[in-house]
Write a structure and sequence with these properties.
The chain is of the alpha+beta class and about 190 residues long. It has one domain (about 40-185). The chain has helices at about 1-15, 40-45, 75-85, 90-95, 130-145; strands spanning about 50-55, 65-70, 105-115, 115-120, 155-160, 160, 165, 170-175. The strands form three sheets. The protein has a four-stranded mixed sheet, covered by helices on one side. Helix 3 (about 75-85) runs antiparallel to helix 5 (about 130-145). The longest helix has 16 residues, at about 1-15.
């Protein structure tokens, strides 16, 4: 019994003697590992990023092109819509840019047929907006989605039902184009 107690006491003594001493304050630890940046990780994993243009509104309700960047190599219409729903960046807000696309807008799918994109939203978003805000939101969506030229016309449906939308320059339409929102077009004077 005494032998067991002696071994136990010895084991406790060794365990506490081999511990790491406590510092009175936090200390820096030097590492031999190099710092790795996110771009190096992206390069190593093969991730690409892409830049694209969406349109926000200035204080006079004119469309202003802004550049965004996302990872991945393929730009999708869902990316454009999500960027329009999101709040403008701090720099964009400082330039008095905003979005009229409602935060509650929820995309339910996109289909492409040639140069026509059919964008289907869930109910409770775009169709409950009225007046100038609706026209501004539609202008932002149409100009952003048609920016690359791959899509030239847009059909917007709610719960898979094609809707007719007011356009400021050509009346109510169910196929939307940039020309129908030309009154919101960016002011290109002075841009070379």
């Amino acid at each position: 019994m005494k032998t067991r107690s002696a071994y136990l006491l010895l084991a406790i003594s060794l365990a506490t003697a081999c511990g790491i001493p406590e510092d009175s304050s936090p200390q820096s630890i030097q590492t031999t590992f190099p710092e790795i940046t996110i771009s190096q990780v992206d390069a190593a994993t093969g991730d690409e990023s892409r830049t694209f243009r969406i349109y926000l509104l200035d204080a006079d309700s004119r469309l202003i092109p802004v550049i965004r960047e996302l990872s991945g190599s393929e730009l999708r219409i869902t990316d454009l819509i999500n960027e329009l729903i999101a709040n403008p960046t701090e720099a964009e807000t400082n330039m008095s840019l905003s979005t009229a696309v409602p935060v509650g807008l929820s995309l339910d799918g996109v289909s492409l047929e040639g140069e026509i994109a059919t964008i289907n939203f869930e109910s409770g978003g775009l169709e409950i907006v009225e007046g100038d805000q609706l026209a501004e939101a539609l202008a932002q969506i149409v100009w952003s989605v048609t920016e690359t030229g791959d899509v030239t016309r847009i059909i917007i449906s709610i719960e898979n039902e094609v809707k007719t939308w007011p356009t400021p320059d050509e009346g109510d339409q169910n196929i939307l184009t940039r020309g129908q929102f030309i009154s919101y077009a960016p002011d290109l004077t002075g841009i070379s």
